[in-house]
Amino acid sequence: MMNMLSSFLVAAGLSMDNLAVTVSAGCSQQVKGHARMLWQVSLLFALAHFIMFTIGFEGGVLLHAGKAIAPWIACAILVFIGLHMIKNAFTPKGKEQVPVLNSLRTQIMLAVATSVDALLVGAGLALATVSFWQTTIALVLCVFVTSLCGFYLGRYLGYKFGRNMEILGGLVLVFLGVKVLLEGVGIW
Description:
The structure is a single chain. The chain has 188 residues and is mainly α. The chain has one domain. 77% of the residues lie in helices and 0% in strands. Helix 1 crosses helix 8, helix 2 packs parallel to helix 8 and helix 3 crosses helix 6.
């Protein structure tokens, strides 16, 4: 039986992708102004992790069909948004930039892209003697807190270091997308 520390470590490991995404988004001021938007995106990320972990846990055997395409989709979403952030960094400040994360569709796509690992881990843990609810609660709380903190940390870094952090944030998303793809095809 998995203890609480093990559940927390699984949750912390699964929340690192969304932490990278939210810090990157915060650096580039992709979520303009409102704390409500930060909470909304953080809740979406936590909900997506809950859903994906539950699906993986309950349908571990059926997962192998979607395992081949999931990394490609996650990679495409992360690389697209990362390149968009890099492009915005080079847009003259006089021109109006449309923050990519203000779109609910983009928020949902990012939530799904960052929660693909939860699907796979859920399937793997279904075969072990794991407390589903203990791990799920730890996962949802960890994802929510790291997402919210990531936005604030990224916003601070973006204001302090400006365009360089926006470019770095975009590069992190591109790297994360490529990493997800390479892991998914078994290279990394």
